[in-house]
Amino acid sequence: MGDTAAVSMKRDIKPHVFVSYVREDRRTVERLCAELRRRDVAVWLDRDSIRPGERWQIAIRRAIEEGAFFIACFSTAYSNRGTSYMNVELAIAVDQLRLRPAERAWFVPVLLEGGTVPDRPIGGGETLRDIQWVDLMEDWEDGVRRILGVLRPEPREPLARP
Fold first, then answer.
1. In the β-sheet with 16-20, what is the strand arrangement from edge to edge?
2. What's the first-to-final CA gap in the chain, in angstroms?
3. How far apart are CA 157 and CA 39, in angstroms?
4. Which residues on neighbouring strands pair with residue 107, listed in sequence order?
5. Which end of the chain is more exposed for a tag (fewer CB within 10 A), N or C?
6. In angstroms, rounded to a whole number, what is the distance separating the alpha carbons of residues 104 and 141?
7. What's the rounded Cα separation, in Å, for the pair 2 and 66?
8. Predicted confidence (pLDDT) at residue 8 exceeds the cutoff of 50
9. Alpha-carbon distance 118 to 126, whole Å?
10. With contact defined as beta carbons under 8 Å apart, do 109 and 115 qualify?
């Protein structure tokens, strides 16, 4: 494939949102992803996006690095896990977060049933808890609306000059 075709294909790929979660939260995460897709947001979810025969660790790393956003779903199930590949995804995401401008949202913490954002360091004396999160269990509709407000922000009106 020539360089022009590769560039053209890359432009045709819609920016995606990577969703990180633990297996126990699959149903709730699938509900969230369905809501996002219904509003024309491309979602990268491991079980849907990794093809048979593909090296899944490489696919996950690439999807996080190339993602327009990273949604991390925290729950009691996540907190109760001794080990989880989600922790590896979080480490990759924190590395990416450090490379991105602080004034632009990229990492979106989402609380599911009983979840809390971990106090994981992200550099500069900050932790993941310093990033504003969305609690979907408090008010699902409002939470989804707030997430969409980050993923698909409305254009701001220019300020009127006096």
1. 42-44, 16-20, 69-74, 107-111, 134-135
2. 55
3. 22
4. 70
5. C
6. 24
7. 22
8. no
9. 12
10. no
pTM of the model: 0.85
On whether the CB atoms of residues 73 and 21 are closer than 8 A, the answer is: yes
How many Å apart are CA 25 and CA 75, to the nearest integer? 8
**Residue 85, both tokens:** 């590949």
Max CA separation in the chain (angstroms):
62
User: What is the SS3 assignment for 85?
Assistant: helix
Q: Give me the half-sphere count of Cα atoms (radius 13 Å) on the Cβ side of residue 138.
A: 11
Q: How many CB atoms lie within 10 A of CB 21?
A: 26
The backbone torsions φ and ψ at residue 100, rounded to the nearest 5 degrees and listed phi first, read -100, 155
| Each residue's pLDDT tens digit, 62-87 | 999 999 999 999 999 999 998 899 99
Closest residue by Cα to residue 36 from 143, 160, 157: 143
